């Protein structure tokens, strides 16, 4: 039972850490961040199992993480208002060609990173962007003035 409690505590801790760290996908992690996350995983394993190398402990720890992941998915599906807390909400970072510098700073995103993403979508200048939304998964959806969406879905409620 102790392993179940340890796994649950560390699951919540890791969830909180990933929410605090910000919105970045695995493909956008620096080498250091990737190594840091791998090391963190090993440290978590040691903290959960107390260096207990039994198969039962490993199965129990992984099972608790899996059940908590499923429970989080169920809560998100059942209670839509919770999604803003567990996954975040999309935020507008460019409106009518003007980057929101305060929002970019809050999201720890530089103008260079934003423009690099825009160039990958064939956008040359900020004034071509009608709307850019930083999605909850860390990707940026660009909507250009021509009405073509370079990436993304129709506008949804809950975007700030």
Based on the model shown, name its key terms.
160 residues; alpha+beta; four-stranded antiparallel β-sheet; 6 helices; 4 strands; 52% helix; 11% strand
Describe the structure.
The protein has a four-stranded antiparallel beta sheet. The chain is built from six helices and four strands. It has 160 residues and is an alpha+beta fold. The model is unreliable at 152-157 (pLDDT under 50).
SSE topology:
Layout: H1 2-21, H2 31-49, H3 55-78, H4 83-86, E1 91-95, E2 98-99, H5 101-106, H6 111-120, E3 129-134, E4 140-144
Antiparallel strand pairs: 1-2, 1-3, 3-4
Query: What is the end-to-end distance?
Result: 43 Å
Strand content: 5-15%
Q: What strand order characterises the main sheet? A: 2-1-3-4
Total number of strands: 4
Order of helices and strands: HHHHEEHHEE
Can you tell me the residue ranges where pLDDT is under 50 for at least 5 consecutive residues?
152-157
Largest sheet: 4 strands, antiparallel
Supply the helix-strand structural class: alpha+beta
Contiguous helical run count: 6
Which shape, going by the Cα principal axes? elongated
- Kindly provide the radius of gyration, computed on alpha-carbon positions and rounded to a whole number of angstroms: 19 Å
Helix content: 40-55%
Mean pLDDT comes to: 76
């Amino acid at each position: 039972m102790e392993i179940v409690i340890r796994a649950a505590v560390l699951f919540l801790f890791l969830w909180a850490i990933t929410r605090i760290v910000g919105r970045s996908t695995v493909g956008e992690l620096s080498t250091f961040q990737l190594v840091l996350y791998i090391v963190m995983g090993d440290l978590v394993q040691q903290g959960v199992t107390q260096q207990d190398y039994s198969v039962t402990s490993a199965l129990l720890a992984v099972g608790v993480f899996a059940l908590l992941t499923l429970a989080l998915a169920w809560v998100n599906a059942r209670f839509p208002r919770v999604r803003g807390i567990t996954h975040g909400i999309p935020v507008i970072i460019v409106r009518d060609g003007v980057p929101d510098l305060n929002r970019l700073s809050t999201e720890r995103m530089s103008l260079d990173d934003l423009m690099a993403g825009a160039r990958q979508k064939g956008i040359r200048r900020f004034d071509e962007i009608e709307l850019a939304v930083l999605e909850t998964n860390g990707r940026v959806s660009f909507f250009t003035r021509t009405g073509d969406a370079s990436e993304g879905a129709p506008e949804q409620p809950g975007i700030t």
